Amino acid sequence: MGFCRWLCAVAPDTKPRGGRHHWRRRSPWLAVSTFALLASAKTVLAEQGDELSLQRIGNGNPVVGKQKSADERCQECHGEDGNSGDVRIPSHAGQYAGYLVKQLSDFKSGARNHEIMNVMAADLTQEDMADIAAYFASQKVMRGERIADNPLAKNLFVNGDAARDLPACASCHGENGKGKIADNVIYPVIGGQRRVYLRSQLTNWKLGERKNSPEAVMNKIAKSLNDDELNALVEYLSGL
Question: Taking every pair of C-alpha atoms in the chain, what is the biggest distance, in angstroms?
Fold first, then answer.
């Protein structure tokens, strides 16, 4: 199914249902927003192709998700287009929707802890999560700006270190750090992510303060990195 046909197929119900979210009511905003999302989707499709774009967006509705992400105040921190304006806060632009849903579910359950995000996720339904995630996933994939060459980090990213059983970052997160889905596992976009946020998460993985990666793989990897390697990778990844 092509993206435009898919978007029409999952267009929101036209019957008003009431409730706390006003996004369920049809309004002139919906038509404008649909055209805006289609324009954004064309950019994504041109870069990635139809199948990969649908895989990235998942089964949520990005049109409804745009309004939900505004209502739930997601855009205040993560940016209207998914690009955060605060170095401490992650960008979500072009992130895999399935990964975002997983993180929101973990915040809701307490499997991942953050004093703000645990509260923000508390009353989200699975449908809310899927729609919000689809909206951010439909945006142009985040990109960084390389400041200088970084041989140490590039070698770790491309080759890893077999002597320490340290896999290459690219083997999971893709050649340019833009993520992928393989064997039903979603590897998130890390290339172009905010520098300070990357550092905080790698540090949290290393210290065991974050533990929600499959089979604790990120804890094992981060613990193998010394401080110079961790900082070098942060600089390299944020520039992809």
Answer: 61
Nearest to 237, CA basis, from 208, 211, 204, 202 = 202
Contact assessment for residue 102 and residue 184, using Cβ atoms and an 8 Å cutoff: no
CA distance 198 to 88: 9
Closest CA to 194 of 151, 237, 149: 237
Comparing C-alpha atoms, which of 195, 190, 15 is closest to residue 92? 190
Q: What angle do CA 141, 234, 43 make, to 5 degrees?
A: 5
Neighbours of 191 (CB within 10 A): 23
What DSSP element (H or E) covers 5? helix 3-9
Q: What confidence tens digit (pLDDT) does each residue in 6-46 have?
A: 444 444 443 333 334 444 444 444 444 455 555 555 445 44
Helix (H, G, I), strand (E, B) or coil at 186: strand
Q: What is the pLDDT of residues 52-108, one digit of tens each?
A: 678 899 999 999 999 999 999 999 999 999 999 999 999 999 999 999 999 999 999
Q: What is the C-alpha to C-alpha distance for residues 210 and 204, in angstroms, rounded to an integer?
A: 5
Contacts of 84 (CB under 8 A, 6+ apart): 77, 78, 90, 91, 92, 194, 197
The Cα–Cα gap between 131 and 215 comes to: 27
In this structure, the chain runs to a length of 240
